[in-house]
Specification:
By secondary structure, this protein is α+β, with helices and mostly antiparallel strands. It is 18% helix and 34% strand. The strands form three sheets. Strands 2, 3, 4, 5, 6, 7, 8, 9 and 19 form a nine-stranded mixed β-sheet that branches. Strands 11-12-13-10-14-17-16-15 form an eight-stranded mixed β-sheet. Strands 1-18 form a two-stranded antiparallel ribbon. Bound molecules: fe (ii) ion.
């Protein structure tokens, strides 16, 4: 059963640009993302490194040395500076937590933006006018960009309302376990997993093709990191996936062939996304996630400290 989707209008947010991660094994994690995951260093500061994919984003991962593995901030790009101001006013009116004033960003990548916490305390930075790389040639085995971020939530109604009503994401599909939210032509950029945890579920990186995904799988295997779930094809989003447990239980995904949608897409309900018995994806070729993957999808929390 489907329900009509609201008339398509792009959200003021146009995608997940980057994720800031605090790690205890700073050098090892940099090497993992460079040698294993296929990112390159765009900027190195005292105590932090910014790593880019092959797309235009200034960086997709920023790492800092911390006392424990934790997500420090998720950067969401708005369409332009005017959209940043509109979102700031909307968040102020909604009484959002820890809302900073819009300002020029001094950190590598620049731009204009502000930070705010979602209702469960995850720090978000909303920005526009940031640096875009001109050299954006796809590579045969490297990620382009962050595709999506999936969050575990223990208060799904409140969190869903914040991301949809306040930030303007569109509900695009609801499966038995996951609520998918859309802000551009990609099927989803944020998704919520209702449950008992308030933490990261996983971060997905888009690679250009199925072949690139498999070459990435091979490079990671040679690096010493094996597939923790996949290779498979999801139902909602129709994307091909392969999941990995990164350093310090960091849950990561390579994905490709994400369904591109427009105003004609109809919001799906759990009845639309009932897999065949014994399967967790369309192909049925992969066993379920490994115990380590299941653990990783519940183990990385968001920092409550200032960014
Ligand atoms: Fe995913």
């Amino acid at each position: 059963m489907t329900t009509p989707r609201a008339p398509f209008s792009p959200s003021l947010i146009c995608g997940v640009r980057s994720v800031h991660i605090g790690v205890t094994q700073f050098e090892n994690t940099i090497e993992f993302f460079k040698q294993g995951w296929g990112l390159t260093a765009a900027n190195v500061d005292d105590g932090s490194v910014h790593l880019r994919g092959t797309g235009p984003d200034a960086y997709v991962v920023a790492l800092q040395q911390r006392a424990r593995m934790e997500i420090l901030c998720v950067d969401l790009r708005a369409w332009d500076k005017a959209a940043v101001d509109v979102l700031h006013a909307r968040l102020a009116a909604a009484g959002a937590s820890d809302l900073s004033a819009p300002a020029n960003i001094a950190e590598y990548g620049g731009g204009y933006g502000f930070t705010v916490r979602d209702p469960e305390g995850r720090l978000l930075r909303i920005l526009a006018g940031d640096h875009r790389h001109a050299d954006t040639q796809d590579a045969i085995d490297r990620p382009r960009k962050i595709s999506h971020v999936v969050l575990n939530t223990s208060d799904a109604p409140t969190v869903e309302t914040f991301y949809t009503q306040t930030l303007g994401f569109k509900l695009v599909d609801r499966s038995r376990r996951i609520t998918f939210l859309n802000c551009n032509s990609d099927h989803h950029s944020v998704a919520l997993v209702p449950g008992s945890h308030t933490s990261l579920h996983h971060i997905a990186f888009e690679v250009p093709t199925f072949d690139a995904l498999m070459r990435g799988v091979g490079r990671l295997r040679e690096y010493g990191v094996n597939i923790a779930w996949g290779v498979g094809r999801h139902g909602p989003g129709d994307n091909i996936f392969s999941y990995f447990v990164g350093p310090e239980c960091l849950p990561l995904e390579y994905t490709t062939e994400v369904q591109q949608i427009d105003e004609t897409y109809r919001v799906g309900s759990p009845e639309d996304w009932t897999p065949q018995p014994g399967r967790m994806d369309q192909w049925g070729a992969t066993p379920p996630p490994s115990p380590d993957m299941v653990k990783a999808e519940r183990s990385v929390e968001f920092s409550s400290e200032p960014f």
